[in-house]
Amino acid sequence: MKRSNIVVLASALSIVPVTTATGQTATQVEDRMTTVTAPLAITKPLAAQAGVAGTVDAKAGAQSATAPQMTRDNGAPIGSNRNSLTAGDTGPVLLEDTTLIEKLARFDRERVPERVVHARGTGALGIFRATADLSDLTRASLFQPGKETPVFVRFSTVIHPAGSPEGARDPRGFAVKFYTDQGNWDLVGNNLPIFFIRDAIQFPDMIHSLKPSPVTNKQDPNRFFEFFSGTPEATNMLVHVYSNLGTPASYRTMDGNGVHAFKLVDKDGKVTFAKFRWISRQGVRSLKGDAAAKAPASYLTDDLYGAIAAGDFPTWDLMVQTMTAEELAKLPFNPFDDTKEWLDAPFRKIGEMTLNEVPENFFRWTEQSAFAPANLVPGIEASPDRMLQGRLFSYSDTQRYRVGANVMDLPVNRPRVAVVNNYQDGQLDMATGKVDVNYFPSVTQGKTVDPSFAPAPYKIDAIVATAPISKAEPFEQAGQFYRSLKPAEKADLVANLAGDLGVVTSARTRVIMVSYFAQADKDLGTRLAKAVDVPMSEVNRAVSEYQAAVDARYAGRQ
Q1: Who contacts 252 (Cβ-Cβ below 8 Å, separation ≥6)?
Q2: pLDDT in tens, 385-439
Q3: Candidate list 5, 184, 190, 236, residue with the active-site label
Q4: How far apart are CA 434 and CA 439, in angstroms?
Q5: Which residues form the signal peptide (predicted)?
């Protein structure tokens, strides 16, 4: 039986010119990606904390100048932190040892529930500087040339648990929290420009299939390929994640994508639709699966933190694609389908982000950070993207469960502007000051709302139904991506796919999956069929059955 191709990755560096307003062909990742053979050597040993300021590694044994008195949580000083209170030399430990009891009780509660997705992550602080005036498109205040906005960025894997190797094949989370003067804006996306599914109602099922089996506790290609065999729209994402983009060489050398379409609303209420993309100034570098498997488990964190500690601050250019409603209507696919890119819409540079600081505490920042697509600011609103619509609820809800109702009071999540609302109490409530009027409206302690900040109105004229989207063509862009790859990258994609698909025991699943890739590109299907021992005659029959059985509207053939 072939071994599954779930692997690990490493790091490398290359500098590319500053991007400017440009067309899609200059920013498409397949035109920029390069596969490298080994991790980039870092200035400090990878096993260490890479010389990050304030760590034991960086202090190299130097003694501290001060030694503050240790206390309990109530501030009372303690007299011993190495020996419990006991009844004599051989006697038992006493329950009245409040220092011991508090210390153990706090230790027992150090962990919050792990994220269901994006559990393995690394964060860094930095600055976003706007380079373009977008007042003709949006009232969002951060897009004024030269204006700087603090940011916190969290990179992550999606499926694998907190203790997993950083290089396991996966999309990479690329979440940016902008601390704007109008509140926090979270641009929560991935390194890949599309996603597996287009409707949030499928998200729990997809994640269940990709997570370890509830019986064996092992991730199993039999399970997730069975799911994808019933989800043809995932084909585009699968060719991306099974290319070498699924094993990036460094967090610094990968692009980021907002994935979804958003509404930009100007001061007069005019709506323009937009997609956002981060372009790495360091280039796009990936690893082959065998090189990735040999990388240290935490090398991505070491690489990012080591580069920042050495003053080699990574930078990304923020690009935007914009289209009017009339232009979107002319696309051959649903413009709000997140399994598709807007391939013909040009990019425009609107800003640049530099990461220049390692957080002082990993848990307080990276683990307690709570990103949510619902964190929007005036001038940026949600589009009808079905996946985004579900994420507006799900992400905020999971953070309130994971960290608590007052998650937004924590320093990493707290807006840098005054927060005025009537929310109260709950776990870890940090509110201060006397507030008797916790309701609205009130004349004795009035609060105001400005109607100009209301969401832009829009008209709906539709039949309410649980129906798939029209113009859902699931294979065309997957084929375009495959054909744009270099020959060596195509071979790696086939090998990576075969590594997992080849262990699937269901002949039906293997045939259907190969038939999807064959409909994306005949050469891809033929090579993959040979690699996983599937006869092309069966693949061709599956293609015919798919085209005959699937509703023409769903298959995108109208």
Answers
A1: 11, 13, 280, 282, 303, 304, 307, 314
A2: 999 999 999 999 999 999 999 999 999 999 999 988 888 888 878 777 778 888 8
A3: 190
A4: 14
A5: 1-20
CA distances for 161 relative to 272, 299, 525, angstroms: 38, 16, 32
Q: DSSP of 435-463, one letter per residue?
A: ----SSS-SSS-----GGGSPPP------
Q: What are phi and psi of 235, to 5 degrees?
A: -55, -40
Tokens of 385: 């993207």
Q: pLDDT digit string (tens) for 374-390?
A: 999 999 999 999 999 99
Pairing mode, strands 33-36 and 284-287: parallel
**Known catalytic membership, residue 421:** no
Q: What are phi and psi of 495, to 5 degrees?
A: -65, -40
Q: Please say if 190 is a catalytic residue.
A: yes
Instruction: Mark out the alpha helices in 284-385 (DSSP H runs).
Output: 289-293, 299-309, 325-329, 362
Strand partners, 76: none
Whether pTM exceeds 0.85:
yes
For residue 108, give the 3-state DSSP assignment.
helix
Averaged pLDDT for residues 8-16: 36
Of the residues 118, 160, 240, 260, only one is catalytic, namely 118
Residues 539, 516: contact at Cβ < 8 Å? no
Instruction: Say if residues 517 and 489 touch (Cβ distance below 8 Å).
Output: no
Closest CA to 263 of 139, 363, 171: 139
Strand partners, 347: 22
